[in-house]
Fold each of these.
Amino acid sequence: MPTDTFDPLADTRTGDLPEVDLFLWGTVFLDIIFSGLVRMPASGTEEWADGMASCPGGIANLAIAARRLGLRTSLAAAFSDDVYGDFCWRTLAEQEHVDLDRSRRFPDWHTPVTISLSVDRDRSMVTHGHEAPLSASEMIGRPPRCRAAMVELSHAGPISDRDTPTWVDLARQDGARVFADVGWDPTESWSVGVLDQLEHCYAFMPNAREAMAYTRTSTAQEALYALADQVPLAVVTNGAHGALAIDGTTGEEAQVPALRVTELDPTGAGDVFGAAMVLGTLAQWPLADRLAFAALCSGLALQQFGGSLAAPGWGDLADWHEGLRSCRAQDSYTQSLRRRYGFLADLVRGVPDQACRRATATIARRADVPGLE
């Protein structure tokens, strides 16, 4: 792993801890984002976009978000040997310093591609791709020892197998805490059987709509209580209403509001939130601080276009905190921010000027999107 200019987990590292903080498996897409569209193209018409950028997407959003926050991150994914695959590999390995030892390059398999069209603070996507040539267990084997692993629960395949241990089982055997989220159910049946997999997880972080659907509850708070009965750390994100969580291992319960931001693109904001929660948990921060930090990181991501392009680093967080500290406003909202993020003062004091900030990874060599030049 590369030497970090700022390591927020430095005080927790001992000789017997794994070298890898977070291990991930998933699909890497080439994301091409068009921003500033006035309207979606009608059939047979052409619309011009004000901005365009390209970057690795899919599981790369989470890997890059985690790495920029200082988590030593290892990713297992299939990569093509085409030009798009070269770009995604180089960006992850050389620019973002994500460990790709468990990843593989495959000839005669093309890179999955997603086109994202951003219109009026919402987005629509078109995607093309194929299943990876190898399954997760075939590609990973035994994962590297890690402090945490992130998985997505689904109907497609359970994360654990009693007869033939999965890579998640092997990671747990070596001491990893499993953090889970869940994707949208296109059938909208929301089978409660998906939640049976929580017995293998340390944390579960769905959004409010998913949480209520799977728990058959009518509010985010009720859903949180239901999930907290099944997993040690339950977190429910609730969009503009913020996030709420219960940590059964510490007996803490917390709720934080979302930041007031101009939302430009929600792509990857959930991944940024999840990476921040993993960091705060490994750092053993109080639950309220973990939630506030995750809300801040995802709020900063919402203010930029481009999934992994928008994921903030510690340089961005230090800049934001300095702006808050030097702001002369005394209104209640600003005072609330100062109280809520007072815990960051000691952390950002150690952030050097050259600390990681948002990047401009793009095949065109320049992201033609406001704020990313």
Amino acid sequence: MDSLTHLALGACMGEAFAGKTLGKKAMLWGAIAQSIPDIDFISTFWMDTTSSLLAHRGFTHSFLFCAIIAPFFALLAEYFHRPHQIRFRQWLLFFGVVIFTHIFLDAFNNYGVGWWEPFNHQRISFNTIYIVDPFFSIWPVFASIILLILKNKMTYRKKYWQLGLGLSALYLLYCFFNKFAIDSEVKNILNKQQISYTRYFTSPAPIQNWLWYVVAGSDSGYHIGFRSIFDSEEKINFQYFPRNNHLLNRASRGEDLPKLIRFSQQFYTIEKSDGTLVFNDLRFGQVMGWQNPLGKFAFHYYLLQPSGNRLVVQRGRLEGWNINNAQFFVKRILGN
């Protein structure tokens, strides 16, 4: 999830744990602990682009990191708040749950997290909720703002952290329901349209959970399309993208390519563009692909011009959006 959401969730969890004892300081502890796995952003200061891609949501999003950092936070909090009525094991449980919640939630996005690092490099990715979903984030953010405004001794503070955590949890369950429904429909449609595949995933299109991005294919290439939960026709207009592995003969055999393939979890294509070879990671979708089936992929890496790859993940996510595109997006969500 995005940083603001993590901060707000942590603040609500801190209030739930020790708001009555520590006041708003409890919200601060929760917000910091919920955000600490994202300390991996500092890797960008010394790592090359591809190494940084793998470092993000790597070790700092692992169970081992959680087991190491939770006691550290518990010791700090126990020290700074003496004397108090909170036992060390209660601090330990609180920080463990808060940090685990971060790495657990991030697994529901399409980037993937390294739960088993450094022993296993497998990335866990459930593709259930978009990384920035205002319908998930609005509740804890709203609750956190209200809790910051209200005085510590007000008895109804409890209702707001319950609202923030409860409604976001319900929305996540709703996303699970949508994921299950979409997967069932898409697999039936793939069978009906006689599309064979060895790899497959669905993931929400940007900032909502009703329109889903569909990828199905194999080492030769991928069929890509979109499906809304409001679509009535049992059909998806797929666009086929060949993988073009043969083009890699032109690419440098350095370290970038193996890292990119590992990062993409094998969901990639290669294409020629403007005098260079472009590596497309299909997991992050196309730029307005629901409107332009041939739209370029949001994540693209210039294999022959690696110096032009800064901010490679952020590049292209909302490129070209305007009021007309937004209206088309809404219509497509509604099944039109």
Amino acid sequence: MNLVFFIVLIMISFIVVRIGGVAFELTGLEWSVSKFQALSCFTATGFTTREAELITKNPQRRRVASYLMILGHAGLVTLIATFANSLHQAKHWHIPLFNLAIMGVSIFIFNLILSHSKLGQKITTGIKKFLLKKEMVKPIYFQELMTTPDGSGIACLEINKKSAIYQKTIAQLKETIPDLNILTIIREGKWYNNPPEDTQILLTDSVILFGKINSIKNKIFKHKPKKTKKLNSVCP
């Protein structure tokens, strides 16, 4: 019974870490960073200084990290107690070793399912839809990364079908917004710095641009958003 309970706890732990990873991604972290940071928070290990700053500087990420830490500590204590209880109740010396082997195999299988299978992808997609539906995390598609006193700044825009610059070239954008400079296009995880003017903006691209922030909002969004929306992918 202890073994079954332990395996269930391991499964729940993997799901919690995946929920945390998806939540971090929705707040703008890149997926590989999101997964690692969620695991770091849950286990309280491997929390690197630079990436820790990405978490601590953002209120939503701090809240997610806090939940992961609390659940991680509670889960660890429960797992240790369950394993210790199984050792105490064992009548033969080989039973704890057998249980330990089963636990290790279970961890490997759960990790394999979530990381490399279609079922894992469906679980991740389902988690993302649930978090968005319940508004537990509020993703957005435009993020101001830096602003100056004169109103200029660097921003990141995620492209979807409703984006005013979708399928336009950089040259066409400069005709509409003369003071706009496209610094980088992030496409399928690759960063293209200083892209040529004939580059077309494609669906799911993330564009890092420089210019007058209000001008960008007024001409790209047609109006200034009431509140800044949060990027859904790569810009912290």
Amino acid sequence: MRKILAIDAGGTSSRAVLLDMTGACGGFGRAGAGNPTAVGIASAVDALGLAVERALGGAASPSAADSFVVVALAGAATPPFLSLLEARLTHLGLHGNIVIEPDLLGTFSSGTSGQHGYAMIAGTGAIAARVSDGRIHTVRGGTGWLLGDTGSGFWIGQQIARAVVASLDGLGPSTALTPLLLKATGIERTGALRRGRSEELSQLMQELYSLRPVELARFAPLAFEAGEHGDVESGTAQDVVASDILEVAASGIARVLAAAVESDAERDVEPDVEPDVDGCVVLGGSVLAAGLARAPDIFLHRLRAAAGGSELVMVQDGVVGAAVLALRHLGREVDVEFHRRLTREVDRVRSPAVCE
């Protein structure tokens, strides 16, 4: 029997699900970041291989079983990445085709059985797209940590780092983010000086500069924590610095979404460009999930305005969509009811999955 694997290769974590043509799921696996742009080719392939191995039940199969694998991935899949991934999957007994699809399409197809609409992902990066006839039609944002992605996990993490460093350096206001970031980096606040600077500032600078820039995204949740609880030590109910960071982040994300949704007339495009499509806006990524759950007053009205009246649908990740894309490649029609059943099946096998 053909083995169908659907993989969502994220910048922070990856997920894989084993399924058949009926939509029944036989296993689920989760592992670390599977995006080669974010973590490098070798690390990404290791993570994807581990997620697949767990979905298969933890053991490689020596048989040359026919397989079909779809990977929802951000960015381009380079020949070295594809070669190493193919070798890893072959080692696991998967000798069939590997198809790479955009992560935006995986996210979109996780939220709807429709083939027209919009997708927005704000996780490590921030990117939006218009989907038409089941394919990516127009992309906005996603230019990366160096050139754009305002509101992304990286951007929020960088703003947190800058705010805390400025506060410790006497160049910015006090913020509840300071003790949170020091704790997250394992630095104790002693008040001691080193060469005219506080010991904790010197250690924090060393720690932050030792990271790859994109790794600052790991600190993004601290903004939501400070925004919710403020500074416990000082009794401040709401941290202004953290709230300001989230306000700008929400505006940046909404601006990218609006650029994907706005009408062709407003963009003054050529007349042969496909007109606006009807459909929902599917939202994905850790920043949007946290924003809607933990800071809805900041995020929700901006997203609704950017969506232009379209329904907003939040999804956990893109693995259901990757499964939808795999089945459609194999000729299976995915209607509303089938999509619901497939989503329930993925959730069923996802729940007991171990998060190593």
